[in-house]
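FAQ: What does a multi-protein file look like?

Like this. Sequence, then tokens, then the next protein.
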Amino acid sequence: MVDEIIPVLKVENLHKSYQQGDTTLQILKGISFQVGYGERIAIIGLSGSGKSTLLHLLAGLDAPTTGKVEIVGENIHQLNEKALCKLRNGSLGFIYQFHHLLSEFTALENTAMPLLIRGENKKQALKIAESILVKVGLGDRLTHIPAKLSGGERQRVAIARALVGNPDCVLADEPTGNLDEETASQVNDLMISLSRELGISFVTATHNLALAAKMDRTCRLHNGMLENDVQLLGREN
């Protein structure tokens, strides 16, 4: 008997539309899927297919027209702003195509920021941040500001920042889209290895089929609908 997957993230019949004058633009049309603890999911699709819109809904950064998103059993769109921010800070990590690091802070301070926002003791937050930066290979770059780091190093700091709070799930939106092919491959491998080591789920929207093939499952977003369990050549399961 196969144990039922306990979802860290559950999406039910998600719709999203926008009104432009007299025209209704339907972006998402009844999306449903779930992600188990430690599971890695890739979402592929053409530019403009709604991948970023979907991730924004999963993060509670936008509200669906209809449907439900649950993070660790909580319907996030029924939470008030304070409760939603607390849930995001504790259960979710975020990685974007552009690193969005704070330019005046060091790699160590940028990484520790989610913990400091959470109210952790500064000394302890910096200690945890340092341990994560060592894991991503930046133990010798702790005091460097973003301007002194390469593109790949900045993205490694962004990954460390996403993981520092030990989230249940990381949402990644084209995390290697701004990197050259070799650096992108290194960052891809890093994300996969850290996900396995730390048991953190990943939902990654990407055009990079090499990255998608390393995930446990791939879903394709097309015409507002999600095709689950897409088969990719070279999948590394």
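And here is the next protein:
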Amino acid sequence: MTAAIGYMRVSTKGQGESGLGIEAQRAAVEAYAKQNGATLVMMYTEVESGKRADRPELARALAHARRIKATLVVAKLDRLARNVAFLSALMESKVPFVACDNPHANRLTLHILAAVAEAEALAISQRTKAALAAYKARGGKLGAQLDQCRNLTQQARKKGAERAGQAVARIAAEAYADLAPMMGAWRAEGTTLQGIAARLNEEGHTTRRGKPWNPVQVARVLERTLG
């Protein structure tokens, strides 16, 4: 681990304003990074219940870590989540993470939870295959046979292109979820595209391909993520 992104969470606004619990989490994350020779690039703080999955600061932390290929570090596993669905989603994000309270157990926990979800997905897949086999046995057409029986209309092609464009925009939004709000604020203040690119480079941010920022890339992110 050469780079780390820290994530801290408290459940109430009062704890967030007072710093209660935050300092202990910060100390644990900083100590872990130092012990493992990692550079702590940035810390993100969330004031939100662990039961909720819509956490913007965690989304920004994950986007930042994914872009610079860093590890997400939390003081305790329960600072991330307390439900299976959220942990499964986190695992699918492909961002490595460790919990300072038990760095060896957290991934095992995730694998166990993911195994439960995988078993259910396998059962669904098997039921779907059985249903399709029964449909084919009754004379239904599948795959290439079905394609031969229909023509792709202009409207369908247009919808396909629109969906592809939406997918590109979604990927960009996820990759720069931590930077887009700042970039939008700087632009609203009158900062030029060149100025925004310079500020991002000065603060050590790179594009998702690891390259320095330039005005064209800034414009694309603003257009795709902020409209």
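Q: Is there any per-entry metadata?
A: Some entries carry free-text notes. For the entry above: The radius of gyration is 22 Å.
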